[in-house]
Amino acid sequence: MSCNVTAGRLEACKDQIGGLKAMYIIIYDEDLYWWRNQADYPLTARGITGTPSAFKFDLQGNNTYSSEIISSRENGTTYQKKTLEINLKGLEYQLFDTIMTLAKGRFYVGVETRAGIQTGDLSESPEDVLLLMGCGNRANQNDAKISARGAELISANVVTGGAMGDFTGATIVIESNDDCGDAGRTGEFLPKNQIGF
């Protein structure tokens, strides 16, 4: 296996914006996995009939997504730790119920950024592409099934705030440890139409 760099990169233009527009909770199914039968974009849902069930959560304010590559020469391993930290405003019963349901299970997450995702596929609008949490990035179909582990809610902090203008609601953190997969594959990019949006 070759691990050599094959291209450089120019300094990017100053045209990026930060922030998240929405998250999509995609129901975990032990038969569902994400795979692409070519070396390029996009991923497609496999193993189930029809479109995976997903629920959209609109986001405003201070919400962040990060993807950290963790590599160990000693262990010979490399994986991605993806973290989504979001603020859900309000203290209604449905919010508590949703948090408890998420805390007890696992799921996939699609993350929609304000800037959109440039995939290199000119037929795909940047606004129609999500970052996918909870799956690996494998060329082999069997490996793709194995690496689809899902994401999990690892903490939830519900606050009322002290002053009248303080944040009232829940800050939740969702995390996944994803297989980095095969070199040269953009495995975390998911078209919204794959989940019915």
Give the helix/strand layout.
Layout: E1 20-27, E2 33-35, E3 44-46, E4 54-58, E5 64-72, E6 77-89, H1 93-104, E7 107-113, E8 129-133, H2 141-147, E9 152-159, E10 169-179, E11 189-191
Please, could you describe this protein's structure?
The protein is mainly β. The protein is built from two helices and eleven strands. It has helices spanning 93-104, 141-147; strands at residues 20-27, 33-35, 44-46, 54-58, 64-72, 77-89, 107-113, 129-133, 152-159, 169-179, 189-191. It has a five-stranded antiparallel sheet, with no helix packed on it. A four-stranded antiparallel sheet has the order 5-6-10-9, with helices on one face. A hairpin with an 8-residue loop joins β2 and β3. The longest helix has 12 residues, at 93-104.
Structural class: mainly beta
Rg over C-alpha atoms, rounded to the nearest angstrom: 18 Å
Mean pLDDT: 80
So how many helices?
2
Instruction: Report the sheet with the most strands, covering strand number, pairing sense and barrel closure.
Output: 5 strands, antiparallel
